[in-house]
């Protein structure tokens, strides 16, 4: 979807710089998809994923005194507490159980701080989602895209949970919840000017058969959006979420299937 947009200005804390947000576009891939080209790493080498997707772009100009290299504009993102689960069925059909991931706290989603010189990073993607901006220069365009996913095995490989090797994935459930901000950050004192926000989520509810979606009822949607910081609190800590932060663990039903 494309969100109708009217430009507006936001000033820095001391009022000496004025950022004009000329345009913001939020494109959503609403339908889930299942693919066998899972590219991330997880603790048991999942080879499939159920995913949604978003793409955000913003155009910003800056007015103010000469300030070479002072400001960077781009996108930042935080993930909020949420839960995802994959249901597996035993080969004889007699047992069901879930591998569950509980995101128990808000975390910054993006490049780790230690990956950039100086050890400071708030950006979703340091190389693609942010750009320097100068007063009276041409407007700057910044964009980002995200395809949050739930990994699964069509047939479980038994790496993380050996006793369910050979079980089939039959359903996925749960959500991932995010807020993404278009911001300007000062490179000297790290002042942040919040220009725009988008609250969005992926609902992964679907049945599975042979690694393919069956009657999916979930999808990706924008919850709310608008100028400024909005209602969510960003996580700006150095640590960012990764595949090991909240690993998938067996639920009580899978644990009960473990041989004595």
Give structural attributes.
260 residues, mainly beta, 11-stranded antiparallel β-sheet, 5-stranded antiparallel β-sheet, 50% strand
What do you see in this structure?
Helices cover 2% and strands 50% of the residues. It has 260 residues and is mainly beta. The chain has one domain (8-256). The strands form two sheets. Strands 4, 5, 6, 7, 8, 11, 12, 13, 14, 15 and 16 form an eleven-stranded antiparallel beta sheet that branches. The longest helix has 5 residues, at 252-256.
Largest sheet: 11 strands, antiparallel
- Give the overall silhouette: elongated
Average pLDDT figure: 92
Contiguous helical run count: 1
What Rg is obtained from the alpha carbons, in whole angstroms?
A: 21 Å
Question: How much β-strand is present in the residues?
Answer: over 45%
Count of β-strands: 16
Our measurement of the CA-to-CA distance between the termini, rounded to an integer number of angstroms, reads 53 Å
Helix amount: under 10%
**Sequence stretches where pLDDT stays below 50 over 5 or more residues:** none
In sequence order, what are the helices and strands, one letter per element?
Answer: EEEEEEEEEEEEEEEEH
> What is the domain tally?
1
Region (Disordered): 219-260
Biased composition (Acidic residues): 236-252
């Amino acid at each position: 979807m494309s969100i109708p947009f009217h430009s507006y200005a936001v000033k820095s804390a001391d009022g000496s710089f004025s950022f004009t947000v000329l345009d913001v576009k939020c494109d959503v891939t609403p339908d889930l998809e299942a693919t066998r080209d899972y590219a991330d790493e997880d603790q048991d080498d999942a080879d499939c994923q159920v995913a949604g997707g978003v793409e955000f772009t913003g155009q910003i100009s800056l007015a103010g005194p000469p300030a070479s290299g002072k400001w960077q504009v781009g996108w930042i993102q935080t993930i909020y507490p949420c839960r995802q689960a994959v249901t597996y069925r035993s080969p004889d059909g007699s047992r069901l159980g879930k591998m569950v991931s509980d995101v128990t706290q808000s975390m910054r989603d993006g490049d780790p701080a230690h990956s950039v010189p100086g050890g400071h990073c708030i950006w979703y993607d340091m190389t693609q989602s942010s750009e320097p901006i100068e007063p009276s220069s041409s407007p700057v365009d910044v964009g980002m895209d995200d395809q949050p996913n739930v990994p699964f095995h069509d047939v479980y490989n038994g790496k993380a949970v050996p006793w369910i090797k050979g079980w089939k994935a039959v359903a996925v459930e749960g959500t991932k919840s995010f807020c993404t901000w278009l911001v300007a950050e000062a490179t000297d004192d790290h002042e942040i000017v919040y220009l725009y926000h988008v609250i969005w989520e992926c609902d992964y509810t679907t049945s599975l058969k042979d690694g393919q979606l069956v009657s999916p009822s979930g999808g990706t949607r924008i919850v709310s959006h608008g100028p400024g910081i909005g209602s969510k609190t960003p996580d700006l800590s150095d640590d960012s979420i990764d595949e090991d932060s909240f690993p998938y663990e067996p639920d009580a039903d899978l644990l009960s299937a473990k041989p004595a």
